[in-house]
Amino acid sequence: xxxxxxxxxxxxxxxxxxxxxxxxxxxxxxxxxxxxxxxxxxxxxxxxxxxxxxxxxxxxxxxxxxxxxxxxxxxxxxxxxxxxxxxxxxxxxxxxxxxxxxxxxxxxxxxxxxxxxxxxxxxxxxxxxxxxxxxxxxxxxxxxxxxxxxxxxxxxxxxxxxxxxxxxxxxxxxxxxxxxxxxxxxxxxxxxxxxxxxxxxxxxxxxxxxxxxxxxxxxxxxxxxxxxxxxxxxxxxxxxxxxxxxxxxxxxxxxxxxxxxxxxxxxxxxxxxxxxxxxxxxxxxxxxxxxxxxxxxxxxxxxxxxxxxxxxxxxxxxxxxxxxxxxxxxxxxxxxxxxxxxxxxxxxxxxxxxxxxxxxxxxxxxxxxxxxxxxxxxx
Length: 379
What we know:
This protein is mainly β. The chain is built from two helices and 24 strands. Strand 1 and strand 2 (about 45-50) form a beta hairpin. It is rod-shaped, with a radius of gyration of 58 Å. Strands 6-14-15-18-17 form a five-stranded mixed β-sheet, with no helix packed on it. Strands 5-7-11-10 form a four-stranded antiparallel β-sheet, with no helix packed on it. It comes from Cyprinus carpio carpio. InterPro entries: CD80_C2-set, Ig-like_dom, Ig-like_dom_sf, Ig-like_fold, Ig_sub, Ig_sub2, Neurexin-like.
């Protein structure tokens, strides 16, 4: 209900002969014989009336006239506000694919004055384009368009159309976005954790999320075939008893109606762990001997560095052995050279003067004066 009040006062504080005329000067000149006008207050210095059930036709200029000497009058301009109807929000398509442009329209009808429209997507304000149209009954229709490119993060986000008007507050409507997008693919290692070595087992799980949900998940090996004994169960890949021939890139491919996406896992199998026993320590007593067990150590960071270290140790040992053999040969050569000598055989003692062997032996007992020397060497 709208109230229109006009008050007339005399200069000396007393009410003179009053004639209150309310006239509508906006193309209507009608006497106040409308039942919607009611007398609210009548006193020595005030006359107040009210107008109920205001309509757009009541808009105009009202005059209060005081017949005095000289006559006086006052004016009041009445503006009627017409709030808009419920805003209507529409979209060009209900489901939008990621990367495409969508258009949303919001319409506010039957307002006076024309309303203004703002846009919000989530907590971010967007700029739209608006058009204002005047209707035959001096009211206005406002239409606003919002265009933007959707991303997968926009799925489920509300787009809000806010209508601003002097006659209403917090007048709005909204529409939730539905965005379809390609799968997001990640690969999770079940076991082993850390470095992978020969003889171990491998389990990989492919996790794919998209809208709509991926209808197909496949495992492939880039530039080669998946090992023949590998087991693929749904999105899981299991390979047992690994060796270096399985090294390569394993790819999980997921697809839905929007498109296809993949993720890669690079498998690198290292040498199996080696055991290195510590030197055995023996303690002898009168009763028994105790031997400490070998200590098995793990090559926690086996790799090319550890292999180079092993080769260096082996090379050092070989060099020491070769050097020791050379020293031994030198010592033996010097020893043989110092033990070279001569000796006489019994056959050589007087053999030239004896007629037979017995005589030669007898003659040899006297010495070696007439015998020839024969040289021999021994070790």
